[in-house]
Amino acid sequence: MDAVVFDLDGVLVDSETTWDEVRRAFAARHGGTWRDDSTRAVQGMSTPEWAAYLVEAVGVRLPPAEVAAGVVGEMARRYDAGPPVLPGAVAAVRAIAAHRPVAIASSSPPVLITSFLTATGLAPLVPVAVSSEEAGAGKPAPDVYLRAAELLGVTPSRCAAVEDSTNGLRAALAAGMTVYAVPNPHFPPDPAVLARATALRSVAELPAALGLA
Q1: CB-count burial class (<10 Å; 0-12, 13-18, 19+) for 5
Q2: Per residue in 111-169, pLDDT tens?
Q3: So what CATH class is 3-14+84-209?
Q4: Under CATH, what is the fold of the domain 16-79?
């Protein structure tokens, strides 16, 4: 592999449950009813996509722009004390960045990606960080991964991608990347999709899996 592209939520930060909690609470405060399939439906969506979903499918009684601002604002406040970095995540990125270019391709908004990179000191080692809201469609569409590869100057088929969720795995596979999965214990990915990736127990195992340890 010529480059490695990381997802953020669920791979480098333990934030999927926080996103779920914040969105559910916001929806309840503004007239929405969370559906049984809503959590998995919004995973991987870009900010404009999940904001529209909360209005159209969940029934939140606000314009999508206000939904996005309210939810992202609360997530940013949660990050004020530092993002919930997963064990071994920073060391894994550092180990790989010593040998290959690395990028982040995330459905998080840019403000939260920047917060993570700043808090961990990884900003100088990650030359490309793309939010799906900057790339077009959110996951499972491959747009954010294709954009990351383009900015790195690397052919997608020569990139490894690291993901945790069903929609994220589908996006990386659709981009033609070699996919490594760190299955999210709170929201396990679809077994049929997971079977198309190389499963790891944690992101800390990635450098060795890539032969870079």
Answers
A1: buried
A2: 999 989 998 999 999 999 999 999 988 999 999 999 999 999 999 999 999 999 999 99
A3: alpha beta
A4: DNA polymerase; domain 1 (1.10.150)
